[in-house]
Design goal:
Elements (H helix, E strand, L loop, with lengths): L9 H29 L6 H11 L3 H4 L1 H13 L1 H10 L1 H21 L6 H27 L4 E2 L2 E2 L9 H25 L2 H28 L5 H8 L3 H4 L1 H18 L4 H22 L2 E3 L3 E2 H4 L3 H28 L11
Antiparallel strand pairs: 1-2, 3-4
């Protein structure tokens, strides 16, 4: 057994910073990946222009948090980085290719004439690939990585399993929910009506996949089953209860045709899932082999990097908040990206 009080130190702080960066990436880049997945199914060309314009000021800045999370992992937890990357090379590279192709397609679709529809589908499939691979990476990490000493000891396709595929499809559904609720918030008229219908439909699948993952995870490792269904059961019970309340509020707000509340609820669904994941994996960085203590860099290095983070992170947060404030309101349907 471990005590949370024993982990409040530099390693814990850095693990929290990296987890926060990953969560912010999921929340912020999740809705524009969701918009990309939904893009070809929009009812009209004007609707697609509105959707593109709603994410145009934000999508590349949102990926800052992915860089921060990956760079922080490399600098603060080099052993974890050295184990996780070889284990997940294929899905990580596939995810990055999807993100690159999505960005290229966004730029080219406004310059293209006869081939615009090809770049529209490129935007869609790039977003779809990136979202699916992010879920696969999550599933491959949670199901465990084979480690021998300080090295990855498994095969190139150990990440590929029924659980990881299910996580990939679940993340796609979750991002579609974020994208649909963002579209509700940023558009109006028939685009908003269409997005609300999508959100009602996909939220059911998100609930199903969250339930399946929640039931599957405790049986991946004996310690997880003990943690969730042992003495800690009543302490952890608020997590699924709060999640159920959030889903109820989401369904009710969609039925009442609210604009902001569905987007907030969709984000809170991800937050609660992230909390549940953190409770399941703590204190491991490489489940269920390497803890945050074993994977961390020297305390002197962590201290020095923390000074830089304290100085730079508020600037990034402030800039991000200012961008969202500056480009608030509804998106136009003119092609002006």
């Amino acid at each position: 057994m471990f005590s949370f009080e024993n982990y409040i130190d530099l390693q814990f702080i850095w693990a929290g910073l990296i987890a926060t960066a990953v969560l912010l990436y999921v929340l912020l880049d999740g809705f524009d990946l969701g918009v990309g997945i939904l893009f070809p199914f929009a009812p009209s060309h004007k609707c697609r222009n509105k959707m593109i314009n709603s994410i145009a000021p934000f999508w590349d800045g949102n990926e800052t948090w992915l860089v921060l999370g990956g760079g922080g992992l490399f600098a603060a937890f080099p052993l974890a980085y050295a184990i996780i990357m070889p284990a997940l090379y294929i899905p990580v590279i596939s995810m990055l290719l999807g993100l690159i192709f999505r960005g290229v397609s966004l730029e080219f679709r406004y310059k293209a004439d006869t081939s615009k529809y090809l770049w529209d589908f490129g935007f869609h499939f790039g977003s779809l690939l990136a979202a699916f691979m992010q879920g696969v990476i999550l599933g491959g990490l949670v199901q465990g990585i084979e480690v021998d000493g300080r090295n990855f000891a498994g095969g190139a396709f150990d990440w590929l399993s029924g659980f990881s595929i299910m996580c990939g499809v679940g993340v796609i559904c979750g991002y579609v929910l974020l994208g649909a609720t963002w579209t509700i918030l940023k558009t109006e008229d028939n685009t908003q009506v269409w997005a609300r219908g999508v959100a009602k439909y996909i939220s059911i699948f998100v609930l199903i996949f969250m339930g399946l993952v929640s039931l599957w995870v405790p049986y991946l490792e004996n310690d997880l089953h003990t943690r969730w269904f042992g003495e800690s059961f009543y302490w952890l019970l608020p997590i699924p209860m709060i999640t159920a309340i959030i889903f109820f509020t989401l369904f009710a707000s969609l039925q009442r045709e609210r604009e902001l509340v569905p987007f907030i609820c969709a984000n809170l669904v991800f937050v609660m899932g992230f909390i549940g994941l953190g409770v399941s994996l703590f204190p491991y960085f490489v489940p269920y082999e390497v803890t945050i203590y074993e994977a961390a860099a020297a305390p002197e290095g962590l201290s020095l990097m923390l000074v830089g983070v304290v100085l730079v992170l508020p600037i990034i947060l402030g800039y991000t908040a200012y961008c969202y404030y500056l480009f608030r309101g509804k998106s136009p349907d003119e092609a002006h990206y």
